[in-house]
Amino acid sequence: MKANDSGLKEEKETILSKLAGNDFYRKIIIVAGLVGIAFIFLSSYLNNYHTDNTKTVSSQPTVTAEQYAEELETSLTDLVTRIQGAGAAKVLVTLERSTQYVYATEEKKSNQTTEDKSDGSTTKNEANDNTETTYILVKDADGAQKALAVTEVQPIIKGVVVVCDGGDNPVVQQDIISAVTTALDITSVRVCVIKAK
Questions:
Q1: What DSSP designation does 64 have?
Q2: What is the per-residue pLDDT for 44?
Q3: 46, 126, 143, 179: least buried by Cβ within 10 Å?
Q4: Cα separation of 186 and 159, whole Å?
Q5: What would the mean pLDDT of 68-92 be, rounded to a whole number?
Q6: Exposure on the CB side of residue 143, measured as CA atoms within 13 A
């Protein structure tokens, strides 16, 4: 068996020495090595390009309360004008509060109990409970520290006013109120439908 192993080693050495000795094969090996190095550099470039694109997508600005109301108004106007008998419409959405963020916090609790004994039979106990809450901070791409937002709470809708051509028709009014209350998940008390002049 050892003779077989030594025979294989000699055969491999002769193949490698033939490849290394031949100018044509040597050039092929060098070109293959250079192509491999080029692929390595290309892959690192593409990885950096992908990371840069990801950063730009994640740093998009958040929607303000005014923009949120405007988007709702546009969507509802389109919805109301499609209701039979409504005609041209204008929608106003009012918000109770703006967008709120809930941030991640870390809470530390400490309990301290002290006992004071006098020579007599009186004993005095005191207990102090302290709670310290701090926000968890993270660094963004610019290196600035910001609080870590856990969730974003959308603004609460205070009311919706719809002014349309068919606002005096009770059937159209009911259809509009049903559509708006279903779309925004609000009660019908918060929706007002009026005829346009």
A1: P
A2: 75
A3: 143
A4: 9
A5: 91
A6: 0
Helix (H/G/I), strand (E/B), else coil: 13: helix
Q: Are 129 and 109 in contact (CB under 8 A)?
A: yes
At position 1, the amino acid (one-letter code) is M
Domain definitions of the chain by residue range: 2-58, 65-99+154-195, 105-149
Q: SS in 3 state form for 94-138?
A: EECCCCEEEECEEEEEEEEEEEEECCCCCEEEEEEEEEEEEECEE
Rounded distance between C-alpha atoms, residue 173 and residue 162, angstroms: 9
Strand partners, 105: 135
- In the structure encoding, which two tokens stand for residue 15, read together? 């193949």
CA distance 50 to 54: 6
Pick from 3, 9, 170, 158: nearest CA to 86: 170
Which residue has tokens 């002769």?
14
Query: DSSP alpha helices (H): ranges in the chain?
Result: 2-21, 23-58, 65-81, 170-184
Looking at domain 65-99+154-195, which CATH architecture does it have?
2-Layer Sandwich (3.30)
DSSP single-letter state for residue 159? E
